[in-house]
Amino acid sequence: MTELFENTALGEKYYKTNVKGLDIYIIPKKLSTVYASVAVNFGSSDVEFEREGERVRLPAGTAHFLEHKMFDMPDGTDAFEQFSLLGANANAYTAASRTCYMFTCTDNFADSLALLLRVVKEPCFSDASVDKERPIITQEIRMYMDDPYWKMHFGLLGALYKDDPIKDDPAGSEETIAEISPELLYSCHRAFYRNDNMALCVCGDVEVDTVVSVAETVLEKTEPVSLTRIRPEESPMPVFDRAEFRLDVGTPLFAVGIKCAPPADGEGLMRADAEHEIILQAIFGKSGSFYNGLYEEGLLGDRFSSGYSSEAGCAHIMLYGSSDDPDLVYRRVYEELCRRRNGFLDAEEFERAKKVCYSAALDTYNGTEDTANAFIGFVFEGGDLFKYTDYLRNASYEDVKKTFMESYKPERMAFSVIYSKEEQNG
Amino acid sequence: MQRKDYILREGVSLTVLTTDKFKSNLLIVELRCPLRQETATHNSLLTNVLSRCCRRYPTLREFNIALEELYAADLDAYVSKTGEVQKVCFKLSCIENDYTYDGTDVLAGGMALLGAMIFDPLLEEGAFPSRLVESEKKNLKEEIESIKDDKSRLALNRCVKYMCADEAYSVAVGGDCAVLETINSAELKAAYDRLISTAPVSIYFVGKDSPETVRDYCERYLPFTPREAELFYTDSSVKAGGVKRITEKGDSIQSKLCMGFRTHRTVKDSDYGALLLACDVLGSPSGKLFVNVREKAGLCYYCSPLLDGIKGLLIITAGIDAADRERAESAILKEIDEIRQGNITENELESAKISALTAYKEIYDSPTAIINWYSTRRGMGFELSPEEMSARIAAVSAEDIAAVMGTVCPDTFYMLGGGVCDD
Q1: pLDDT at residue A23 above 60?
Q2: Are residues A129 and A263 in the same domain?
Q3: Which of A61, A243, A284, B59 could form a disulfide with A155 if both were Cys (CB 3.0 to 4.6 A apart)?
Q4: Number of Cβ within a 10 Å radius of residue A331
Q5: In which domain, by residue range, is A224 found?
Q6: Which A residues, 344 through 373, put their C-beta within 8 Å of a C-beta on chain B?
Q7: Chain B interface includes A423 (CB < 8 A)
């Protein structure tokens, strides 16, 4: 059965259907580019689980390694080559909560979709192919190690989380990927790449029937697996409040994090997303007194941004930027949060922030890729992108204030800073 | 998508591309200048100063509040480089009026602010306030120095610096710290006056509003005076004089290799399509570099060609272990040689073509891409639509690709050494 969901204010709609256990979402859009993505509910944070009574612990980087190897096809070809011949541009990524396989195309949509579904359906690993992948992934890991933003980001996560795998590089390390074998990859594929543990999202000028008929042809029924993900218990407090590195950067970079309680369900996630975006925009946005005060003082420049993230059972707020004196910025953030606990926002700040967040949300509908990716971000959590703008517009001052008081606790702050090698501390 | 061109005044053009595909409008004002060491930094600093405030909104905060009231209209000023031309750009992006929930005329408000940013800056005694200039000098310095944060980009820049040492192309479009030091507010104001009154102007709009509406807004808010409709030339004829091999010690784990070649071809040339396909045969996700240098030799995670179709450069970049430099260089050169020999399979040719044709279709899905397409070609004094280019691509043969690759000359092989580099 196909259901239709509409947001008339935005002039947008989507269809939801299910083929052999796989949830399929189709967002029609009159653009030349069609974007399709299969999201597997298996990410870099899924390192420990219980399957049919047996406890399994995976080496860090397994989901990402599997992502790399899924493009080897059983007939010995490389899926990238076949996508290229169809004119489709394929890619994949691994995040904490999911692995996504996607392509964009302007022609040959049905064939490209069939190929994408075969990529996730048909594993083919050997000792040789797994060995061959290790030096490539090693170079990928090293590439990120040279990225100061990456280092700062994971430095902060390491300060916020004690044992949760969210603090680790999704690609693992050179040591952990050495433990990965074809057998391990096969068993992960069996456990997670099941129709009922994945979702397909297509955005573009396509017919629902085309998508359904391709899915019916390619997909085979998969058996449900009883599986419980195990996550370490985390304290609501950070592990330590400061991580510090020295790298060859121009100006010192910093990230401030605040650990939050993760939302309970999809509705909670949409509400939390909307409310945090409004709070961050109002307090730390480019029109706010905080940013402008520090800008006038020369403590902040253009590079300053903020965001709320809730993924794989972990939620936190982050502020990023660069400054000659990151420690002073950190102190100012602390003071600002304390100050805002009395008085919070004025009505103008609140309404203006809502407008800005609404405009940003609207922007995600301008391209097929942005729309589908934003949509997928909510799927496994039980949320719905199409309702998100309503949550933004309907957010009440009192609710938003409550979220602020509960989540922006100065004692849950941590700090990650990258100093330039040439300079001394701050 | 409907296109309408206007000449508003001599040297001031407007192109309106009307479409209802997007929920926002995009308008870009481009002022073109030759890329020169003496002026590049001034122009770059100007974009920082102008985008910070204006007479009506004399602080960044007031300016930003005004923009946010317009549903977070995005107003920006920046410089960009196409070949040896520096473009000083002013951009307005705002949501389509239909999607506001209180009836605000976002486009009208945004155009007024854009006009204020360009024509009505905050001045004190006829110059930019020096406090403002000094503060933006600090911000620009930080921006220039932040190139160190991205070693791949740094390596690419260093490679170009050596390769085009005596050419305007090597001038840093964002500015140079040494020049920046010397700029004062009076000098900056003189640079501003020169820029606004003499640089050729192209305005582009992509959105739902009618060409007449957009033209009226431009007449009202963007009162550019007539100026010479000059074109600035980029020298793509420089010959390579044998391979220069350069290694610099960087501070990174991975080494960044950049192999620079001269193609002597620009987007204007009839065989540019063949060169573009040659790059795709090399660098597509299933290209020769991916299959052989990454998958078979396991030398890197990324290895990709960058083609500058204005200056006539091809630079292949890869992240490698320093110890693998020779192996990586020969593996990459081998693939280039394969193309020269005409060893291009039917599949490779087919997928390169379809990838180029797809890219041309996708241009119409991105307002920025549409504007870039027209702007690049106009700046070189010719017109060519994505459809016309597609027709050229369709006619390219494997022999054409081999022939054009045969004329590509190696120039500078640069490596920013990391980790275990012994130099």
Answers
A1: yes
A2: no
A3: A243
A4: 12
A5: 3-229
A6: 352, 355-356, 358-360, 362-363, 365-368
A7: no
Instruction: Test B295 with A249 for CB contact under 8 angstroms.
Output: no
A105 touches chain B (CB under 8 A): yes
* Contacts with B139 from chain A: Cβ below 8 Å: 301-302
pTM of the model as a whole: 0.93
Q: Considering only CB atoms, which chain B residues are within 8 Å of A352?
A: 65, 68-69
Band the pLDDT of A426: cuts 50, 70, 90. Answer: very low
The span from the CA of B245 to the CA of B263, in Å, is 18
Together in a domain, A257 and A366? yes
Indicate whether A59 and A194 sit together in one domain: yes
Q: How far apart are CA B55 and CA B191, in angstroms?
A: 19
Q: What is the pLDDT of residues A57-99, one digit of tens each?
A: 999 999 999 999 999 999 999 999 999 999 999 999 999 999 9
Contact state of B357 with A87 under an 8 Å Cβ cutoff: yes
- Asked whether residue A107 falls in the same domain as residue A211, the answer is yes
User: Do the first three CATH levels of B2-221 and B244-417 match, i.e. the same topology?
Assistant: yes
User: Is residue A33 located within the same domain as residue A144?
Assistant: yes
* pLDDT tier, A423 (very low <50, low <70, confident <90, very high otherwise): low
The tokens of A425 are what?
A: 């501390």
* Residues A45 and A192 occupy one common structural domain: yes
Domain total of chain A: 2
Q: Which residues of B379-405 are buried (b: 16+ CB within 10 A; e: fewer)?
A: bbeeebebeebbebbeebebebbbebb
Is residue A17 one of the residues assigned to a domain? yes
In a domain, A234, yes or no: no
Question: At B419, is the pLDDT very low, low, confident or very high (cuts 50, 70, 90)?
Answer: confident
Compute the mean pLDDT over every residue in chain A, rounded to the nearest whole number: 95
Structure tokens at A410: 């100065």
Q: Provide the pLDDT for residue B418.
A: 84
Assigned token pair, A181:
């074998």
Nearest chain B Cα distance for residue A177, angstroms: 15
Q: Which of A147, A236, A264 is nearest to B418 (CA)?
A: A147
Q: Is residue A426 part of a domain?
A: no
Rounded to whole angstroms, the Cα distance separating B302 from A143 reads 9
Per-domain residue ranges of chain B: 2-221, 244-417
A190-202: average pLDDT? 97
Q: What are phi and psi of B95, to 5 degrees?
A: -70, 150
Give domain status of residue A190, yes or no.
Answer: yes
- Given A177, A199, A229, the domain boundary residue is A229
Judged by CB atoms closer than 8 Å, whether chains meet at A80 and B286 is answered as: yes
**Is B414 in contact with B155 (CB distance < 8 Å)?**
yes
CATH number of B2-221: 3.30.830.10
- Overall average pLDDT of the B371-378 stretch: 95
Q: Is the CB of residue A297 less than 8 Å away from at least one CB of chain B? A: no
d(CA A11, CA B414) in angstroms, rounded, equals: 52
CATH number of B244-417: 3.30.830.10
CATH number (domain holding residue A35):
3.30.830.10
